[in-house]
Design a protein that fits this description.
This protein is about 40% helix and about 15% strand. It is built from 14 helices and 13 strands. Helix 6 runs parallel beside helix 7, helix 9 crosses helix 10 and helix 11 packs antiparallel against helix 12. The protein binds flavin mononucleotide (FMN).
């Protein structure tokens, strides 16, 4: 794939973001859209307007985060992984966990992700997700959490290709033909040749059955988050599957890294995970670079404040005024990375106990405008959350 590359380095004009096509783009990004037709991404019948998508992130990619990602430029987003049995046990309107099945008009297309052990449970759970409004069903063969592996879920399936392929087959057979089924995988249980062979057996089987795309995280299950994501493996996967859609994952902490992954590996799309938590602007930044424009400046302090308010309102709608605080504390900590005084603002979010404490931070630390900064990511803080049970 030949991709236009924007000039690295931002302008510092600090103007408010404009909206194009329902997407909030920074000033440089919006003018950039006329420079070149940005590449698009296909997931079966679903055509996406951009190649950067919001990854599934347990503990984070709830409805508010997904809506923020879409409003700020993500082409598509995925909900937090859900256990098949948990989905089947949900009773409409009853449970405090009902928000996991919340899908609204503005976020289409949106993917729902399933994890489980028993192939027989996957089909009915997938139908439930389609009924809830999810447009794509993604199957998790990647989660490396010990408890999850111990229950023969997630990454465990990379050790048993025939079961993994059966799961894809059952989901494909259960949901309507126009609903794409996709698979998320790590690149194996470990880095042995046997593990690699099993990975390709699953991938070949999944595409043979009719999977519309795979997302590959270039780390093994055993590796968890230690060491870099292996982008050479992603390149090998793309070369192996040819025209089938491959979305790459791993170490996408900046727009430049996303463009580099596309160029170095040939994958069709990029799945931004930790790099998008508290940084929805990354999606517009990728769009800008791929359109041949300069990297937009990081959001100003006031732009950050506005996004924090917007995110808080979405969380309030989802969890109610009393319960949205803990979620927004977690997100505030991540947004703080973009503030000119990241450590101080982070500590302020960490110390919040009430919604009033949280709002007071906006008054104190986000009142004066000024340039923001690109986030510096602490990769040691990564760990997959356990899916809801
Ligand atoms: C907190 C956290 C939660 C995650 N939850 C999920 C999940 O629910 N489903 C999934 O497929 N991957 C999940 N992942 C993996 C990410 O989607 C992604 O593949 C991985 O973080 C590598 O990308 P990165 O290095 O750019 O963060 C999670 C990762 C983290 C850090």
């Amino acid at each position: 794939m030949s991709l236009p590359l924007g000039r690295a380095g931002a302008t510092e004009d600090g103007a408010s973001p404009s909206r194009t096509d329902g997407v909030r783009l920074g000033p440089s990004a919006s003018s950039a859209c006329s420079l070149a037709a940005p590449p698009s991404l296909r997931i079966g019948p679903v055509e996406l307007s951009a190649v950067a998508v919001q990854a599934a992130l347990s503990g984070y990619s709830d409805w508010p985060m997904r809506v923020m990602a879409r409003r700020y430029g993500a082409a598509y987003s995925l909900a937090e992984v859900m256990i098949d049995r948990f989905v089947l046990d949900q009773r409409r309107g009853r449970s405090r966990t009902q928000h996991h099945l919340r899908v609204t008009d503005e976020e289409h297309p949106v993917g729902g992700q399933l994890i489980g052990a028993d192939p027989l449970q996957f089909g009915p759970a997938a139908v439930r997700l389609v009924d809830a409004g999810f447009d794509v069903i993604d199957i998790n063969f990647g989660c490396p959490v010990k408890k999850v592996l111990g229950r023969c879920r997630g990454g465990y399936h990379l050790s048993q290709p025939s079961v993994a392929v059966e799961i894809v087959e059952r989901v494909r057979a259960a949901v309507p033909g126009n609903v794409p089924v996709t698979v998320k995988l790590r690149c194996g249980i470990d880095d042995t040749a046997q593990s690699r062979a099993r990975f390709f057996e699953i991938v070949d089987g999944a595409f043979r059955i009719g999977a519309a795309a795979i997302t590959v995280h270039g780390r093994t299950v055993e590796q968890r988050y230690v060491g870099p994501s292996d982008w050479r493996f992603l390149r090998d996967v793309k070369a192996h599957v040819g025209a089938q859609t491959v979305i790459g994952s791993g170490d996408l902490f900046s727009a430049q890294a996303c463009v580099r992954m596309l160029q170095e590996t040939g994958v069709d799309g990029v799945s931004i995970a930790r790099g998008a938590i508290g940084n929805p602007w990354i999606f517009a930044q990728v769009r800008a670079l791929l359109a041949g424009a300069p990297l937009p400046p990081p959001p100003t302090v006031h732009e950050q404040r506005d996004a924090l308010r917007e995110h808080y309102q979405l969380a309030e709608q989802t969890y109610g005024p009393d319960r949205c605080g803990s979620s927004m504390k977690k997100f505030g900590i991540k947004y703080a990375r973009l503030h000119p005084e990241p450590a101080t603002v982070r500590d302020a979010f960490v110390a919040t106990k009430t919604p009033d404490d949280w709002q007071a931070i906006l008054g104190r630390w986000y009142a004066d405008d000024g340039p923001g900064r690109y986030p510096v990511v602490d990769e040691t803080q990564a760990n997959d959350h356990t899916p809801p049970v």
